[in-house]
Write a structure and sequence with these properties.
Distance between the termini: 19 Å
Radius of gyration: 18 Å
Low-confidence stretches: 135-145, 220-226
CATH architecture of the largest domain: 3-Layer(aba) Sandwich
Number of domains: 2
CATH topology of the largest domain: Rossmann fold
CATH class of the largest domain: Alpha Beta
Strand content: 5-15%
Helix content: 40-55%
Mean pLDDT: 81
Strand order of the largest sheet: 2-1-3-4-5
Number of helices: 10
Largest sheet: 5 strands, parallel
């Protein structure tokens, strides 16, 4: 899996903030899994321990980010790094309270993307995650060797990055869904990943698509659709 660092959970009702956190996860070689509220995230949590969570304190739904932090620590242990972000509870006492509840960091919105990247990398490194090296200009793939993909594989990878389903890809390329599935399996093997979300992240890191495409394409993946 190379420098794949694991899954980052992202929970924020602010679509722009979610997209920024997704870009950070992708640049660091992690798989983003995001939702707009705690309930949606809890419905699709896997047994596998995530690498980190980025949670807004203020969430829509019944649970707050602080409550979700406690739930995640109950499930995965207190060692799971959690970064809290808030645009309302920004006083020093609020930040201290979040840290005392077990947060690894507490950031005030609007969060500068560069700062979020640096803080997330630091938290991942402290927890022992295998963090990818994102370069300073935001490309996130500057030192990687290019993949040897066939023209058809590149075509399918780009369509995956655009959020297309297997059936939609088959219709667009006028090939059978079974053929698309075979190409996707070959792509996953070459990329060293196991899911469409990881494939989209890898497409960005390899320079096949830009971060704007990733943020849009992962809109389905963010809520766990494969």
């Amino acid at each position: 899996m190379g420098d794949y660092c694991g899954r980052i959970l992202i929970v924020d009702h602010d679509e722009f903030a979610r997209a920024e956190a997704v870009r950070v996860a992708v640049r660091l070689g992690c798989e983003p899994s995001a939702a707009e509220n705690a309930e949606l995230m809890l419905e699709r949590l896997a047994d596998e321990r995530p690498a980190l969570a980025i949670l807004a304190v203020e969430l829509t739904g019944a649970m707050s980010g602080l409550e979700l932090l406690r739930e995640l620590h109950d499930r995965y242990g207190d060692g799971l790094p959690v970064i809290l972000v808030s645009g309302e509870r920004t006083a020093p006492l609020d930040r201290v309270a979040g840290l005392l509840l077990g947060a690894d960091d507490y950031l005030v919105k609007p969060v500068d993307p560069g700062e979020l990247l640096a803080r997330t990398r630091r938290s991942l490194q402290r927890s022992g995650a295998n963090v990818g090296k994102a370069n300073g200009n935001g490309d996130g793939h500057g030192t990687r060797e290019p993949l040897s993909l066939s023209p058809r594989e590149r075509e399918i990878l780009l369509l995956l990055a655009e959020g297309k389903t297997q059936k939609q890809i088959a219709d667009e390329l006028v090939i059978s869904p079974k053929t698309v599935a075979t190409h996707i399996q070959h792509l996953l093997a070459k990329l060293g990943v196991n899911s469409r979300a990881q494939a989209v992240a890898a497409a960005y890191r390899q320079g096949f698509v830009g971060s704007d495409v990733v943020a849009h394409a992962l809109d389905d993946v963010l809520v766990g659709v494969e």
